[in-house]
């Protein structure tokens, strides 16, 4: 891998290659021991990405879900934020395609590049060539909200009821945000607790594609924080953001939970 590629290409190529390694691991190991497969998947992808970034961008820091959080990153100008295997549960289930690899770059206070590989779907969405967002969605189409297939939050159910929206169950956060990018869903909203690596890469791609991205109180999500937790996120088509933020405020005000809703 050439070290002269730009950061967008590095993110795309590393996410794609890590995904290919995960597919090969799946094929070799099979699904009879899901816990073992999950552990192998996390470790294999992390070791590849960490090593490749150390070779290609040796001066940059790395924040990985599977690595030790070296607080030296807080003084770094550039930090790669990676989730080597997002949707570990789905990865270890035969036939599931809703898992992903996330690679994002934070530089001088903001996300500047990112890629989300969807290996079992045969695609990588990245800031190299962000997905094209249709100008309009069909006016008569019911809104679709992506939510966890195993732990759908009560908050999202209440929001869907208020909006008359359909809930589309799905695995990883990356797959959910990519579903919005690809027009499979209109909204991804989460308020049950995440970390920066869960959404940095898909947020970078979503922003590049022109989607609205914010916290559920309308604030701007920030990265490379002392505490890498990022409890909530909203990703949607820009024309829906005002209605959604108002509905979120209404739902949280009525149940008394405030802006950071558990579930």
Automatic annotation (TrEMBL):
GO terms for molecular function: 3'(2'),5'-bisphosphate nucleotidase activity. Gene3D superfamilies: 3.40.190.80, Fructose-1,6-Bisphosphatase, subunit A, domain 1. Pfam families: Inositol_P. It comes from the Bacteria. Its EC number is 3.1.3.7. The keyword Phosphoprotein does not apply. InterPro entries: CysQ/Inositol_MonoPase, Inositol_monophosphatase-like. It is an enzyme of class 3 (hydrolase). Keywords: Hydrolase. This is 3'(2'),5'-bisphosphate nucleotidase CysQ. It comes from Nocardiopsis mangrovi. The lineage of its organism: Bacteria, Bacillati, Actinomycetota, Actinomycetes, Streptosporangiales.
